[in-house]
Amino acid sequence: MGLDERRIEAYFALTEAHSLLQLLMEEQLKRDGDISYLQFFLLARLAQAPEGRMRMTDLADTVIHSRSGLTYHATKLESAGLLRREPSPTDERSVTAVITDQGRGLLEQVLPGHIALVRQGMFDPLDDPQTEALADALTLVRNHLRAMVPTSAERRRS
Amino acid sequence: MGLDERRIEAYFALTEAHSLLQLLMEEQLKRDGDISYLQFFLLARLAQAPEGRMRMTDLADTVIHSRSGLTYHATKLESAGLLRREPSPTDERSVTAVITDQGRGLLEQVLPGHIALVRQGMFDPLDDPQTEALADALTLVRNHLRAMVPTSAERRRS
DNA sequence: TATTGTTATACTCTATAACTATA
DNA sequence: TATAGTTATAGAGTATAACAATA
What we know:
The structure is a homodimer.
Chain A (H helix, E strand, L loop, with lengths): L4 H29 L3 H12 L4 E3 H8 L3 H13 L3 E5 L7 E5 L1 H23 L4 H21 L3 H6 L1
Antiparallel strand pairs in A: 1-3, 2-3
The structure holds a DNA duplex.
């Protein structure tokens, strides 16, 4: 078939590891902040952006969803007071999503448990060199995939 | 916070890599076999089990879903002729899911494109030592998480 | 009593295309 | 004409608890 056993194993391990991790995360985030995994990621992504703000379309691309899907979640997060949407001054078609203080507060509330779970679930079984190697490889793969996957705007065109 | 930048980066890379990969997979599987990622995994898991058969509860655990969720998908796959359900001879409460010839046929139809995509998306950016290291680390993490996550029966009890 | 699988039900999420407005 | 975001709507998937049958 052209892809050796070792690689197939690695692929399935990636998928299953991520599924299991996500199951644990979903529980933790629900418990600590009554928030979904996806919404946590949206807030986390916003929080690390300059001034906590990002254009809707760019935000959609980082989380892979269709724009309508992002609108759906943005509406929910906005109702909960965790982000707000502002018109862009430079391009009036654009909307900028901004994380609120309350949104940052929720992140702070949820992050300690989240990070503890990441450490426990993902890094406890690895020593330092293995951790380095994993980080290096995953970063390469992620960057490669980013280039391969069309943006939400590109997908829409076709 | 106790978890260094490198590890947080690796964690986010895992999540994003898997999301991007899944987006590509979903398209490929839909196109080549009109099947979802989850249903592909159910069939693939069955196909690699002895005699292509597995107890419903065990199958649910490998794919992480609730039992009712598995019943939902098993019903769809059965309607499509891709698996069948048989009563277990040893325990009459149990149901055994068995992949059909048609199910194996669909896997064969879909696998070449799938494997090509795995190679292109996941392994093209890695050299051999990096691939080895990634496989080793992900396998350790996966096994560790398997032990951490309660089975569907255990989750039900609580 | 405990376990297996199913069902009913309500809910969340997703995806498409149509729509408005700005560029 | 192309792009940004929203909306309407329809469909897929999910989770819970209640259920019947068996251990």
